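The material for today's practical consists of a large collection of protein records. A record pairs a protein's sequence with a compact description of its fold. Instead of coordinates, the fold is spelled out as a row of discrete tokens. We will come back to this pairing of sequence and fold again and again. Here is such a record, shown just as it appears in the course material.
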Amino acid sequence: MTTPTIPDRVPGERRTELAAFLRARRSRISPADVGLPPGMRRRTPGLRREEVAQLAGVGLTWYTWLEQGRPIRVSVQVLDAVARALRLDHAELEHLYRLSDIPIAPPDVVVETVPPAAREILDSLDPLPAALLNSRFDVLASNEAHEDLFWQWHTMPCERRNTLWCCFVEPDARRRLLNFDEEMPRVVATLRASFAQHLREPAWTSFIRRLSAASPEFAKLWARHDVANPESRTKQFMDPDAGLLRLRSTSLAVVDMPEARIVVYTPADDLTRERLPLTRLRHGRDGKSSS
């Protein structure tokens, strides 16, 4: 399959609009917003072109030509990198694609911006572990209780904050998630149902391909073509400090983020309710001393 590119003959007025749009988006981002030093006094607000090029991992000359509206060709993947550097939201990303005369704007190529209200909800749910996930099971945000519960999950470096990746690639996952063989096929089936809406999106197809290569078990489950919707499930975790925890996972829709959901873990029995605070001791939170 060929890689889509911006056509050579995008109408001149559209290129002019594209150039203006990129300059406007660049001007609204300060160096501090992206972790860059302020540097010398700036004549205009926002980032410099070279800083955007650096953040996107593209050549300065190429980005300058793009912002000047010159008739250049660029892959979708490179355009996505510019979108991430400029911190475009979904509507802005779609606008960028339309101005570039590309018919489909994958909704997941931009770094998903977590609404402040969603972060506040996550924090307010503490001491219940809670995380914000997208339909690919990427962890977009989580509260401290969730971080404490899973902080020792990995025995090897984690390549990405993704529930499926952590479970299928981490060799210690079955010892942590005791009902792994019961739960993970359903998680894969839920992913398969969501995949139908993202069939042509490089980020999704690349993720499936890479995870299948890293985990033959995932590849086997994926090949079954089972589908399922998110639902409340009871998962059994073995915590190094708290012992056996039976936690009920419940998904809550987030209106401002299509396909995203807040997953909350609640104790499924009284013993788990008593033991759950033990997961917090290691970080010394809530006034407790570290163990």
